[in-house]
Design goal:
mainly alpha; 4 helices; about 0% strand
């Protein structure tokens, strides 16, 4: 049962990531008011929470529950997914820092 719960968290986290990216895309425009920047920053925080859920659930699936860790470790598709996740995470750092700096400035 614990494995099923972890898989659902992983699945819901992935859908949340995608959904938040769509919302953020819809909120972005050439000029943003201070309130719009705060709204975008709040959605970016939700994005970060969803990313952490995906990461923690994924690590739990890899090392704690389900198939043995060797199944995933030897799988090139798994490595591609992890690499893409890390690339997207790295690319999202600059916008997050920028939004946080803008919303905490008077």
């Amino acid at each position: 049962m614990f494995e099923v719960v972890i898989r659902y968290f992983h699945f819901i986290g992935i859908f949340a990531l995608f959904s938040v990216l769509v919302v953020e895309h819809m909120l972005i425009k050439r000029r943003l008011t201070a309130e719009e920047m705060h709204r975008l920053a709040r959605w970016d925080a939700v994005y970060g929470i969803a990313a952490v859920v995906v990461l923690l659930a994924g690590l739990a699936l890899w090392f704690l529950v389900g198939k043995p860790a060797d199944f995933y470790t030897a799988n090139p598709v798994f490595h591609a997914k992890v690499t893409l996740f890390l690339i997207v995470a790295a690319l999202s750092v600059f916008p997050t820092v920028f939004l946080q700096a803008q919303t905490h400035h008077p």
